[in-house]
Amino acid sequence: MAGPASDYYRGEMDISEQAATYEGFGKMAKWGSLAIAALLLTITLWFCTPAGFLGGLIPGVVLAVVGVVFLREKPAAAH
To answer: CA-CA distance, 78 to 24, in Å (whole number)?
Structure first.
């Protein structure tokens, strides 16, 4: 069983695993959203318009490339 509540001292816990999980979730959400958006655009244009396969694939690839350019990690500013 756990010891008395007085054994806890605020600010002394190692939170590196929680920070890594938070960062990983943020990256997964960011890149996953881009992948879903590109796939959804491609499939929508392919099946729901007369554009056909290439008419859906080209805008999907363009969206993916533009998304990678804007969502990639920026270099940290040196101070």
So the answer is: 24
